[in-house]
Structures are given as structure tokens and as C-alpha cells.
Design brief:
This protein has eleven helices and no strands. It has 207 residues and is mainly alpha-helical. The protein folds into two domains: 47 residues, Arc Repressor Mutant, subunit A; 131 residues, Tetracycline Repressor, domain 2, CATH 1.10.357. α8 packs across α9. The longest helix is centred in the last third of the chain and has 21 residues. The termini are far apart. The C terminus is likely disordered. It comes from Paracoccus alkanivorans. GO terms for molecular function: DNA-binding transcription factor activity; transcription cis-regulatory region binding. Keywords: DNA-binding, Transcription, Transcription regulation. Pfam families: TetR_N (PF00440). This is TetR/AcrR family transcriptional regulator.
Length: 207
């Protein structure tokens, strides 16, 4: 734990680590100990565990917005912006393993109500949905639910990089391009006979 961080940030970092390790069973006293603060000081910042958990979500959402959206360049074409988004996503997940683990955990084991999850991550979710909508309008994007496609991008990147870590492999530039190309190939509209086949198999709401 970096003791030079402000107390509130130390508490949030400790809470994130303890939630991944113990879920909601993590005692506030142990979170305080991990952060190197007195229990009373913790409650001065967060009046309950529920408030603390929501703050962990909010901080993660802020970091995601900063890492993935701050560098957006609206003057680029939609497919170029998607390429930049995927590059930034890979960079974020690979170079910040602690938050990558937290993101993976909170995605698989939500600790807040679904509507709270939607609200917390609305900015990044709305961004990728709107970008995919532009790609759909240009004819680049395959048919399907936009929200599902946005979730696919993040899930594909996180799961791919997880296996690199499990096998203790470095991530090369070629690996990054392969992951991006897999995302692109999965999302891009088919150019020939496959389009008509896809139309027949899609449910009506996805056409």
C-alpha cells in the first residue's frame, strides 16, 4: 500500500483489494488495517460498507473513462476511433493488473444492483454504443445488438489478456494487433453470401 496516497484513496485501494479477495464479507476493520488507517478514520470517509462499495465502483468508472475516453478524437473516422478505443482498452487492462482484476471480479460478481451498475458505467457504455451506431450507419458493422457488441469487445480483451498472464507470457505488439484484429473481424459486416445467411438466423429485434 502506497502510504503517500491521500487517506481516502488508500481506503479505496484497500477496499478494492479486499473485495476481490473476500467479497462483501471483507470486514471494515480489516479494510482499515490494509489501508493503514484507524477504523474511525475509515468511517469518517465512508459511513457504511455499502457506501464504500459504491465508491469503489465510482472510482473504477472514473478511471475507465479517463483511460478509454479522454483520448477520443472525433475528427477520425468511426473505424479509426474504434481502433484507438481497442488499443487504449488493451493498454489499460495490460498495464494496470490490479484494476484489471477488480474490473473482472466486479463484472462477474456484481456487488450492487443492476440499475446501479448501469448508472455507474453509463458514460463508457454510452460512448461505445454510439460509436457502434455510427459504424452501423456506415455499413461497416454486422447486424446484432449494439450493447452485446460493446460488451463483447471488453470481454474479449479482458479474457485474452488474462490467459497471457496465466501463462506468464509477454504481450508483444503483434499480440496486440492480433487481439484487435479478432475484435474487428467479429464485428465487421460480412461482405458476401454470409450476409444473407446471417439475416436469416438473426432474431427480428436485431435486424
Amino acid at each position: 500500500m502506497d502510504k503517500t496516497l491521500p487517506m481516502r484513496d488508500r481506503i479505496l485501494e484497500a477496499a478494492a483489494e479486499m473485495l476481490v479477495e473476500h467479497g462483501t464479507q471483507a470486514p471494515m476493520s480489516k479494510i482499515a488495517a490494509r489501508a493503514g488507517v484507524a477504523a474511525g478514520s475509515l468511517y469518517n470517509h465512508f459511513e457504511s460498507k455499502d457506501v464504500l462499495i459504491r465508491a469503489v465502483y465510482d472510482q473504477l468508472a472514473e478511471i475507465i473513462n479517463e483511460r478509454l475516453l479522454a483520448g477520443d478524437r472525433p475528427e477520425l473516422s468511426p473505424d479509426a476511433r474504434l481502433s484507438c478505443y481497442i488499443d487504449d482498452y488493451i493498454e489499460f487492462i495490460w498495464n494496470d493488473p490490479k484494476r484489471a482484476t477488480l474490473f473482472e471480479y466486479l463484472s462477474n460478481v456484481p456487488l450492487v444492483a443492476p440499475e446501479e451498475m448501469v448508472r455507474t458505467f453509463a458514460r463508457s457504455s454510452d460512448y461505445i454504443t454510439e460509436l457502434l451506431r455510427e459504424l452501423r450507419a456506415s455499413g461497416w458493422l454486422a447486424k446484432g445488438e449494439l450493447i452485446c457488441m460493446g460488451g463483447f469487445i471488453g470481454g474479449a480483451i479482458r479474457n485474452s489478456l488474462k490467459w497471457y498472464r496465466i501463462h506468464d507470457r509477454p504481450l508483444t505488439g503483434a499480440d496486440r494487433e492480433q487481439i484487435k484484429n479478432m475484435c474487428f473481424n467479429a464485428l465487421r459486416a460480412p461482405e458476401s453470401e454470409g450476409t444473407r445467411f446471417l439475416d436469416k438466423t438473426l432474431p427480428s429485434y436485431a435486424k
